[in-house]
Amino acid sequence: MSKALTISFIAAVGLVGYIAYQQSVIKQQKEMNQVISDAKQSLQQIESNPNRKIIQIDSTQQSNVTNGTLMGEAKKL
Question: At the top level of its lineage, which domain of life is listed (predicted)?
């Protein structure tokens, strides 16, 4: 009788642990989906903004930025 009780107690603890784990995974997925949804909404707001400016950087300006100089800064000879 005590063996059956011990086994059933261990099984119940294992089942409760598994259920708690599944709930935490579901909660994390919901939070991640919320973050993604918020990011999509923010991106849509930014893209729909008529005052936004698109800046294109050519390869010389990219090298200036990576070298630590400002974009558009004249090189002194």
Answer: Bacteria
Q: What is the pLDDT of residues 3-44, one digit of tens each?
A: 999 999 999 999 999 999 999 999 999 999 999 999 999 988
Query: What Å distances lie between residue 3 and 10, 13, 14, 47, 67, CA to CA?
Result: 11, 15, 16, 66, 73
- Tell me which range, 23-32, 51-60, 64-73, is most confidently predicted by mean pLDDT: 23-32
Instruction: Extract the tokens encoding 57.
Output: 């950087």
Domain boundaries in the chain? 1-44
d(CA 62, CA 15): 57
C-alpha pair distances (Å), 4 with each of 1, 7, 9, 70: 5, 5, 8, 76
What six digits make up the tokens of 14?
């294992």
